[in-house]
Structures are given as structure tokens and as C-alpha cells.
């Protein structure tokens, strides 16, 4: 933890005599909570690619993260407050990253280090790379660069400290973890031929239906559905009780819920369309190959 200087804590209109400034602090609850959090940030010990080398250099003697109370990198998400996503996020790795994020106790923060973690970087649109970790978990600070220097990472960490300093316990938008009840876990993406976000399941299902019918299914071709056009999905037996993690495990090897697609009610006046998963995947692959 960074060295305690009581003058950092003064947050009051009541004057404190100069000779007592180092011994007495009159402060607010938000101020002392924020000071405690920002002065003992423990990053999760993991790295993904070249940016991780710069992160390691930042923790070494020359730049010395311990000046900010951040030197204790923990090998367990259970003891970490800060996730530094340092490197290229592949579709394979985003699954454990989101799982680790869910395992971190609140309050927790995320720093996207480098072009890859922030938006895909030089590998953007690559077949195996996601276009930014912020599509899956909330990011507090972005550090640009390829790779960012240790100084840039330090600047990002100081920016995070400033962000924490500006938070108020009275505003649950600032600090949702002090609200009532536990937070919802972040949905874990399903690893499959093309990684998907469970929050986009409805959109993916509609695209799958268009693809199965041999129609264009890109975002441009997908018209906004009117309520009357919305396909009725037959309720699944355990729909109300499934958690994101359970559904992810059950969805192996990650198809966009074919049974639900097959159960979709037919369009008005038409016959119930038969869903052929293999044909749909073949069409998607063919389209991708044509694009390439
Ligand atoms: S941003 Fe550059 S240095 Fe960092 S992981 Fe990507 S390619 Fe490597």
C-alpha cells in the first residue's frame, strides 16, 4: 500500500491548523473509501502477448509500480482488484478472461493495454482475434500504443486512480458494487466456429434463420423487426433457471442454440422451415471464402 499522507485525505471546509495537518484528517466516507481502493490496487498476474513484456518492465525496479501501491500482482483472481489486459485477445482466450473477470471480487477495474486489447490492433478482423476486450467486459482505462511504453502504462494507472478519486458512494452509477444485492455475472462467450456473445443471441438467431433460407444475413440486410414480425420462440424447459455459465457449458461445441432456432414459429402463412445446421455452416463458410 502506498505511504499514508493524511493531507491526501483532507476533504472538508473545516480548517486544520498547519502544525496538525500531518496528524489529523477530517474527511468524508467517499474520500477514504476511494483513497483506500486507489492506493492498494492489486493487478491480476497474467499477460497475453508482447504488451505483457512492457507490463513486466513496469513492475521491475526502473519504473517500480510499488510507488503507487500496485506492486502486489496476484496469481489468483480472488485476490485481485485490477485486470490489465496486456496483449492480443484471441477468441480462444476471451473465454477464460471473462471467467477470470467474473471470479474477481468487487470492486474491480479493467485496463486495456495496447492496440490489441483496445480494438484488435494489427490483427483486427483476423479470423482468431476479437476486436477489443471491451466487447465482453467493461473497460475503465485504455492505454494506446503498440506496445505502450512502461511510462504509458503508468499514466494509464494514474488515470485510473484519478477516476477512482472522482467516484462517490452516493452515486450507484459510479460504484455499483455498493448497491443492494450481488451484481449479475458478465456472460461468458461461447467458443465455437465463430465466437458469439450470449447477449446477442436474438440477433444471431435471426441471422441464422436468414442464412438457412439462403438470404443475405449481414447487419445491413437485417431490417429492424416490428413486434408483429418477431418470431415466436417456443419456451425451453429450463429457460428460467439457466445461468450464463451453465448454458455456455451445455452449448458445447457452441452452436447458436439450434434447437431454439428449429422451434421458431413459421412466418405468417408459410410452412415451418426446417433448420439444417450443417447447410447453414457451409453457407457461412462459403460466404466468408468468397469475401476473402
Ligand atoms: S498492441 Fe502491439 S505490442 Fe501489444 S500485443 Fe498487440 S501487437 Fe503486441
Question: Can you characterise this structure?
Answer:
- The chain has 292 residues and is mainly α.
- Helices cover 32% and strands 4% of the residues.
- The chain is built from 9 helices and 3 strands, in the order H-H-E-H-E-H-E-H-H-H-H-H.
- A 3-stranded parallel sheet has the order 1-2-3.
- Strand 2 (109-113), helix 4 and strand 3 form a beta-alpha-beta unit.
- The longest helix is centred in the middle third of the chain and has 16 residues, at 150-165.
- The protein is elongated.
- The termini are far apart.
- The model is unreliable at 226-272 (pLDDT under 50).
Please specify the SSE layout and strand pairing.
Elements: H1 29-38, H2 51-59, E1 82-86, H3 91-103, E2 109-113, H4 114-119, E3 141-143, H5 150-165, H6 201-212, H7 244-250, H8 258-262, H9 277-291
Parallel strand pairs: 1-2, 2-3
Helix pairs in contact: 1-5, 2-5
The site of iron/sulfur cluster has 12 residues, from helix 4.
List keywords for this structure.
292 residues, mainly alpha, three-stranded parallel beta sheet, 9 helices, 3 strands, elongated, binds iron/sulfur cluster
Largest sheet: 3 strands, parallel
Annotation field: number of helices: 9
Overall geometry comes to elongated
Number of strands: 3
Hetero groups in this structure are: iron/sulfur cluster
> How big is the Rg?
24 Å
Determine the fraction of residues in helical runs and give it as a percent range: 25-40%
Structural class: mainly alpha
- Measured by DSSP, the beta-strand proportion falls in under 5%
Low-confidence stretches: 226-272
End-to-end separation: 52 Å
> How would you write the strand order of the largest sheet?
1-2-3
Order of helices and strands: HHEHEHEHHHHH
Average predicted confidence as pLDDT:
77
